[in-house]
Amino acid sequence: MICERCSxxxxxxxxxxxxxxxxxxxxxxxxxxxxxxxRLVICKDCWSKMPSRKKYKSTTLASTQMKMxxxxxxxxxxxxxxxxxxxxxxxxx
Length: 93
Ligand SMILES: [Zn+2]
Ligand SMILES: [Zn+2]
Fold this sequence. Notes:
The protein has one domain (about 15-80). The protein has a two-stranded antiparallel ribbon with strand order 1-2. A two-stranded antiparallel sheet has the order 3-4. A hairpin with a 5-residue loop joins strand 3 and strand 4. The chain is of the alpha+beta class. The chain is built from four helices and four strands; from the N terminus they run E-E-E-E-H-H-H-H. The model has no long low-confidence stretch (mean pLDDT about 80). It starts with 13 loop residues before the first strand and ends in a 12-residue tail after the last helix. The longest helix has 11 residues, at about 70-80. It binds zinc ion (2 copies). One zinc ion (ZN) binds near residues 3, 23 and 27.
């Protein structure tokens, strides 16, 4: 198998979720697990493009849960509803 980004011969490849190329480990800029079966992979090229990088960063486990009305997602959200006064505490800066 050949990496479609650096043309190196590779044993195992990842597929970038933004350009859909099969890339090697070195060309993978970042990856994260969204669920048991879903992984999000971004290559170094897409990372350097702001739109895809932003997309990658904003795609979280929480946002995928909201798309599917599963009881798991419902339970996850309950603790938030019980805190009426907390309006987003100041995040780390
Ligand atoms: Zn590569
Ligand atoms: Zn890519």
